[in-house]
Automatic annotation (TrEMBL):
Residues 311-322 have a biased composition (Basic and acidic residues). Residues 304-333 are annotated as: Disordered. This is Pre-mRNA-splicing factor RBM22. Residues 159-186 form the C3H1-type domain. Residues 232-305 form the RRM domain. A zinc finger (C3H1-type) spans 159-186. It is found in: Cytoplasm; Nucleus.
Amino acid sequence: MASSKGANTYNRQNWEDSEFPILCQTCLGDNPYLRMMKEPYGKECKICARPFTVFRWCPGARMRFKKTEVCQTCSKIKNVCQTCLLDLEYGLPVQVRDAALKIQDNMPKSDVNKEYYQQNMEREMALNDGVNPSGALGKAMAPSDMLLKLARTTPYYKRNRPHICSFWVKGECKRGEECPYRHEKPTDPDDPLADQNIKDRFYGMNDPVADKLMNRYTSMPKLEPPEDRTITTLYVGGLGDKVGETELKDYFYQFGEIRSINVVSKQQCAFVQFTTRAAAETASEKSFNKLIINGRRLNIKWGKSQGQIGTEREEKEEERHNLAPVPGLPGALPIPPEEISNNFFNLGPMPPMQLRGPMPPRGPPHMIPMFMRGPPPPGVRLPPPPPGMMPLRPPPGVMPRGHVPQMHYPSQDPNRMGATMQNR
Ligand SMILES: [Zn+2]
Ligand SMILES: [Zn+2]
Ligand SMILES: [Zn+2]
């Protein structure tokens, strides 16, 4: 049986009309004043071929127009976005999610029985409470380790960018800056990721993105507990403004008694000290790379031992004395005005500025020199930010056109720090 729009006309009550699309946060974009255009029965669903209501919208400035590709029944059956077909809850391909949750459904992939299955599912959806997903997904087990580690917790708007300009690739685009398409090198056609298609994504088979993600999971590092067994403190980074002491306590107390929680709100991190080493070890194991509180993925690291800090500090002093002064830099920089009252790492004030090498994530990050929060003095290269912090971009005017700054160290190259080439 052919399942084209023509073949479907005999069964018009089967067509799908809807008021609002089912979309993920990424596809919706960051523009709160979205204008959604709607075309009833505008196209056939790319999975079940039934005509459905197509929505079109622009997800933000300099983004491409997006539209829904599959019908809402198909989207609900798999709990995926109608446009990108990624899982609505975890932002992951169906193949990854289903492997993680050990889901197996019996959705027919050929035209035979497809319509019958579709109707059954619709009936089931109409009967159920609308809270639990239908079909195999509704019977899924609790989220797995893999799902927690791979889940996307923030929207990824880059995915909404325009497509690559095919004229530019051939060297023929004459539109220059005006061109609405991206002037970028296309992905290598031999790259397995170049071969993605909507059906494989939907059914969760042979999806190259899923393979890549699952490989990433198997090669994820583990957090080794430090040899010094007196260390019972964990560093928790990336708190944002949604995670505070209460949230941390509510989560961490399950692993054992907590001696103290010290939140350094300015740096959006905290130090959680347990009374026993065993509790700290369990907490690190259960939280590393997979702790998500209030939608924020948190970084977990071990605290440092006292002895280690001493030697590291001496090394840093050495390093500092070997450096030549940088012209244009104020001679003495103010020491940060506040000290945290609960200094677990017994650190003294840090040398005012580190000129060589990446800033190591040692000790509480309140040690970052104060001027890093404002624009640096002209000519000053900043060390890269510690992990978890936004890369610092030199403010406009720091690098005048044509000025080639002298590099102290490759990691201080502003182009590697996330700065763009816009000044060149
Ligand atoms: Zn469909
Ligand atoms: Zn989407
Ligand atoms: Zn172009």
